[in-house]
Request: fold
Amino acid sequence: MRRPWNLIRFVPAEEARHALLNISRAWRGTMLLCFLGLRARWVDGPLDDYVTARNSQTASTLGLSFLASGMGAWILLLPPEIGAFVGPLALSGYALGSALPFIVLGLYGPKIRRALPEGRSIAEFAEACYGPGVRRWVTLVSVGYMACFWPLS
Reply:
C-alpha cells in the first residue's frame, strides 16, 4: 500500500518559475487593459459614446463583431464534430440555429431602431414596450444566462 505522502508531487523550481511568470504576465495585461478602458472613458464626451459607439462603425464591422462574439471557438470546432458523428441533417440544423439570431436581428433591427433610436440594450426596448417590470425581468434573465457560463471562463 502506498502512503499518502508518496502521492504528493512536488513542483520543480523551473515549472514554478514559469507559472509565476505567466501569472505575472496575466496580471500586467489585465492592469493594462483596465488602464486603457478607464482612460478611454475619461476622454471628454457623453457616456453614450463610450457605451454604445453609436453610428461610428460600418454594418460589415458590426456584423463581423456579432458573428465573432456569438460563435466564438464553436464555429471552428463544432460543425466538423456534428457532421462526423450525427450527419448532414444535424449539420443543417446547426447552421440554421446559428444563423437564425442574425436573420431575426436583420429583420427586426431597423424596426427596433426606429421605435427606440436612443436605446442601448434589449432591456431598454422591453421597458419601452412593456414597462419597468419587464425590463427588470429581462435584465435578470440576461445576468442569469451569463452566470451559466461564468465558471467556464
Q: What stands out?
A: The radius of gyration is 23 Å.
